[in-house]
Specification:
It comes from Rhizorhabdus dicambivorans. Keywords: DNA integration, DNA recombination, DNA-binding. With about 400 residues, the chain is an alpha+beta fold. It folds into 3 domains: about 80 residues, Double Stranded RNA Binding Domain (2-Layer Sandwich), CATH 3.30.160.390; about 100 residues, Tyrosine recombinase, N-terminal domain (DNA polymerase, domain 1, Orthogonal Bundle); about 180 residues, Intergrase catalytic core (hpI Integrase, Chain A), CATH 1.10.443. Helix content is about 45%, strand content about 10%. It has a 4-stranded antiparallel sheet with strand order 1-2-3-4, with helices on one face. A 3-stranded antiparallel sheet has the order 5-6-7. The radius of gyration is 28 Å and the shape is elongated.
């Protein structure tokens, strides 16, 4: 008996015949697909006509009739399918094409480094595989040998594989977008220097910053944005007082007693940070009190920013992890030496001899680096209160 629209909608898992070889195949997952069964050169074959979600019963019958007519006229769908497969590039070819196309907008250093991990770790394993055959299981297998041995590189490659597969989908080489969300579930938990400090991929941070800026303004959200913009530790933000800032010179001087390394740290302030601070200044309750406080006297809780992340659906991400995010971004997307990024994070040199001879704090380079970081994150500083905020003199009065 021929199918009806209602039968198609309510069909249970199995094969439901419409007539003349056309049938609806319903999988246990609920997926519904139109299939046409025909004889071709003595062999019975099934040809997919699309998802029942996208192709109506009427359209499926029309498509089946058209395919039967074309086969009678000599069309060979098997040969056409093989021909189509031949133009699907390998994973390596797709990666190199992606690199060549997207890399025009990258800095020279990032452009030259981007392929090295693929060439060293991935091409020998999956480079010759057609790109449309690269799925989560394939990626797990390729990354397994390096996942624990060089975790940071492995995470970086996972992110770049996603870029390649998205590019391949746009080019029409991969019919559907490939989600790599399940890859980490197939790999052991990493235990690198980040430990439990889970970091958000830098590609996701601009959208978070925009969300924080456009949501209802709170002290906690301001503190979170300030912390991410400056790549500082949460305590350095929570306990910041107005007397540490010189907004005319755009610097924040954190005294040695508040720093983990026990050394004074001077932070260059980017334009969005200055805008945020001017907003806070207009709302202050004390000229010398805490910057991120509801009363100028008591700092916000050390859980305030963590709770913000949890409430936004990032339970596994930590505030401290954004420092690692900044490190990854600086290495991947800029040409600044590692020493400059380390100094921006106030990392202490492990080599005491080198530390003794290094006299520079890379301040001007750090100012440029933090400007690039702010530009990357997007100038999401809220305009609220900034226009009417009174000018801040060099150092707020103690």
């Amino acid at each position: 008996m021929a199918l009806t629209v209602l039968k198609v909608k309510n069909a249970k898992p199995g094969r439901h015949v419409d007539g003349r070889g056309l049938c609806l195949v319903v999988k246990p997952s609920g997926a519904r697909t139109w299939v046409l069964r025909m004889q071709l050169k003595g062999h019975r074959r099934d040809y997919g006509l699309g998802s029942a979600h996208d192709v109506s019963l009427t359209d499926a019958r029309t498509a089946a009739a058209e395919l039967r007519r074309r086969v009678r006229d000599g069309f060979d769908p098997v040969a056409e399918r093989r021909k189509a497969r031949k133009v699907i590039p390998t994973f390596e070819a797709a990666t190199r094409s992606c690199h060549e196309t997207l890399g025009d907008g990258w800095k020279d250093g990032h452009h030259s480094r981007w392929l090295s991990g693929f060439e060293r770790h991935l091409f020998p394993r999956i480079g010759k595989k057609p790109v449309d055959k690269v799925d989560s299981a394939c990626v797990v297998e390729a990354l397994s040998p390096i996942w624990l041995e060089i975790p940071e590189t492995a995470r970086r490659l996972l992110q770049r594989i996603g870029v390649v597969l998205d590019f391949a989908h746009v080019k029409g080489w991969v019919p559907e977008e490939v989600s790599l969300r399940s890859v980490r579930k197939g790999l052991p938990r990493q235990n690198d220097k980040r430990g439990h400090m889970e970091a958000m991929p830098y590609a996701d941070v601009p959208s978070l910053m925009k969300k924080l800026a456009t949501a209802a303004q709170t002290t906690g959200r301001d503190a979170m944005r300030f912390t991410i913009y400056n790549a500082v530790r949460s305590n350095e933000t929570r306990l910041a007082v107005w007397t540490e800032f010189d907004l005319e010179k755009a610097v924040w001087t954190i005294p040695a007693e508040r720093m983990k390394a026990g050394e004074t740290h001077v932070v260059p302030l980017s334009a969005p940070v200055l805008a945020l601070l001017r907003k806070r200044w207009a709302e202050r309750t004390s000229d010398a009190g805490l910057v991120f406080s509801n009363d100028g006297k008591k700092p916000i809780s050390d859980m305030t920013m963590t709770k913000l992340l949890r409430d936004d659906g990032f339970a596994s991400i930590t505030v401290h992890g954004f420092r690692s995010t900044f490190t990854d971004w600086a290495a991947e997307c800029t040409d600044f030496p590692k020493e400059v990024a380390d100094k921006a994070l106030a990392h202490k040199l492990p080599n005491k001899v080198e530390a003794a001879y290094r006299r520079t704090d890379f301040f001007e380079k750090r100012r440029s680096l933090m400007k690039q970081w702010a530009d990357y994150l997007g100038n999401s500083a809220s305009a609220a209160n900034t226009a009417t905020a009174e000018p801040i003199q060099a150092r707020a009065a103690a």
